[in-house]
Amino acid sequence: MKGSREKAASELFAALYPRLAGWCRRLVDDDGTAHEIASEAFTRLWSRWTSVAEPRGFLYVTAANLVRDHWRKLERERRAVRRATAEAAVGPRNEQADPSVRLLVQALPERLRVPILLHYYADMPIREVAALTGRKEGTVKSDLHAARELLRAHLGRRLDHTL
Q1: How far is 42 from 17, CA to CA, in rounded Å?
Q2: Alpha helices (runs of H) in the chain, residue ranges in sequence order
Q3: Half-sphere exposure in the Cβ direction for 23 (13 Å, CA)
Q4: Whether residue 70 is found in the same domain as residue 111
Q5: Which residues contact 117 (CB under 8 A, 6 or more apart)?
Q6: Counted domains in the chain
Q7: Which of 2-16, 36-50, 131-145, 146-160 has the lowest mean pLDDT?
Q8: Do 157 and 92 lie in a common domain?
Q9: End-of-domain residue from the set 44, 74, 104
Q10: pLDDT tens, residue by residue, 68-124
Q11: Which residues form the domain of 48?
């Protein structure tokens, strides 16, 4: 019995994965992300394998929800970059989220990176960031200021080198 379920799952994967990944690719415009979404949809299907009546529909609905989550994440990142750079008074910026900004944020010390991610990327108010990190609101504000200053300095140097 178990062997036939595994065979059916394997056949379903072989039949549907390429088409599902291609569909996701057209929606997210990135091969890696498309394969992650398609794989996650199959993973969720496997966890409910015996209770899903229509696997194909389940896969596409799940993938559509994951694509939507991906788009929301990208928009949060774009808003966070716009807010962080606007508050850092960097000057004119490209409307697209600059991947180097993400790298700069990732390179910040954890003490500064966590408040930036929570406040700007997750759009949490300072009060909530303070509660989650166990710090005082004033400390969070100070850390956000220090992080913005570091980002401004690094971005300013980059802008100077490109001019």
Answers
A1: 8
A2: 2-28, 31-47, 55-87, 99-107, 110-116, 126-133, 137-162
A3: 18
A4: no
A5: 105
A6: 2
A7: 146-160
A8: yes
A9: 74
A10: 899 888 888 888 777 777 766 544 444 344 557 777 887 888 888 888 877 887 677
A11: 2-74
